[in-house]
Amino acid sequence: MDEQLQATPICSRHRALNALMAPFGGWDMPIQYEGIIAEHSWCRTQASLFDICHMGEFLFQGDFEADGLEDVFTFSVKTIPLGRSRYGFLLNEQGGIIDDLIVFRLAEDKVMIVVNAATAPKDFDAIKGRLRGGAFTDITAATGKLDLQGPLSRYVMVELFGEEVATIPYFKFITMNILGVEAIVSRTGYTGELGYEIFIPSEKVCELWDLMLTDERVKPAGLGARDVLRLEVGYSLYGSDIDEETTPLEAGLESFVNFDKSFIGKDALLRLKEQGVTRKKVAFEVIGRRSPRHHYEICFEGETVGAVTSGVFSPMLGKGVGIGFIKPELASIGTPLTIRHERVSMEATICELPFFRDGSVRS
């Protein structure tokens, strides 16, 4: 029997808009409304609204060091300034990525941890098992989350909620009153465009969704457009590009690992640094408009040397783009590759990330 899909509070709104729905991370989620290409274009030029209520949120309150939270992630929690957030990883003993996540510093002794939907229960158990004290709670069910992304998002947010929103720098957040309740507005996102993530009590999230869609500059967008947007700027997708069998070193994400502190998985990563990785993540552009797909083979001079983990047609570049893992000795910019699957074959070249560089994310 199929597992029962969870539904966000906004699910009925998606169906009323005739969204194409599909399972994602155990949730019934909108893939597209009017079409992936149209929604992608709107986000790159206007402002798109995403239902992200499926994400997991945890609260920790206590002494970060004495209670053990400081040693849980690949980054330091205690050095996050108040009102700022930090991205990094929760690793297993082998250095594999249990999840990638963001921690928000709410107070001297309090943080919110935002995790991926499919891994949320596993993340909660892993973090709880590493703590020595403090109060650790799962607030996912009580928390709604909407993302407004696109170059016009600041104008929309200011008109709806006030000038204070315009002062929020990248990866900083503020707490403010929205619809009569306390909400967190964060200058973060997953699209490569200027944008905001809004955390609000779940009982208010439908009202907020409706309010934001009254602005003609705002349209809803589904996970299909979100996937194209994130890949164009080279952001990893958990479960495709990173997972428990993949380390940050293989995935080219070592910059989010602080080796000057202790964390579970550190010893394994240090050994891997000495031995060298056996595979490495690369980005590639296809010569032509074909789309590489997950699990397609990556070949070099007729030999299979790796596999694609994410691939799409990029509307901004007018060509197929993708990322995957190959033998490290071949992972040089400019290396010619062939992407194959059954009778499909396309020529490609290794390139630098991001593919698309003209987004408004830091505007």
Quick overview of this protein structure:
This protein is 18% helix and 35% strand. With 363 residues, it is α+β, with helices and mostly antiparallel strands.
Task: Explain how this protein is built.
This protein folds into three domains: 6-53 and 141-232, 2-Layer Sandwich (Gyrase A, domain 2), CATH 3.30.1360; 56-138, Alpha-Beta Plaits (2-Layer Sandwich); 278-351, Aminomethyltransferase beta-barrel domains (Elongation Factor Tu (Ef-tu), domain 3, Beta Barrel). Strand 16 and strand 17 form a beta hairpin. It is globular, with a radius of gyration of 21 Å. Helix content is 18%, strand content 35%. The protein is α+β, with helices and mostly antiparallel strands and 363 residues long. The chain has a six-stranded mixed β-sheet, sandwiched between helices. It has a six-stranded antiparallel β-barrel with strand order 15-18-17-16-19-20. Helix 2 crosses helix 6. It is built from seven helices and 20 strands. The chain has helices at residues 11-16, 36-45, 120-130, 153-161, 205-212, 223-232, 266-275, and strands spanning 6-7, 20-24, 27-32, 47-51, 56-61, 85-91, 97-107, 110-115, 135-138, 143-149, 173-178, 181-186, 195-201, 218-220, 280-286, 297-300, 303-314, 319-326, 336-341, 344-351.
CATH superfamily of the largest domain: Probable tRNA modification gtpase trme, domain 1
Question: Uncertain spans, ≥5 residues at pLDDT below 50?
Answer: none
Rounded mean pLDDT is 97
Number of helical stretches of at least 4 residues: 7
The biggest sheet, with number of strands, parallel, antiparallel or mixed sense and barrel status, is:
6 strands, mixed
The proportion of residues in beta strands is 25-35%
Shape: globular
Q: Please tell me how large the radius of gyration is.
A: 21 Å
H-E string: EHEEHEEEEEHEEHEEEHEHHEEEEEE
Strands of the largest sheet, in order across it? 11-12-13-10-4-14
The number of distinct structural domains comes to 3
| Count of individual beta strands | 20
User: Helical amount among residues, as a percent range?
Assistant: 10-25%
Q: What is the correct CATH architecture of the largest domain?
A: 2-Layer Sandwich
Helix/strand class: alpha+beta
CATH C-level of the largest domain: Alpha Beta
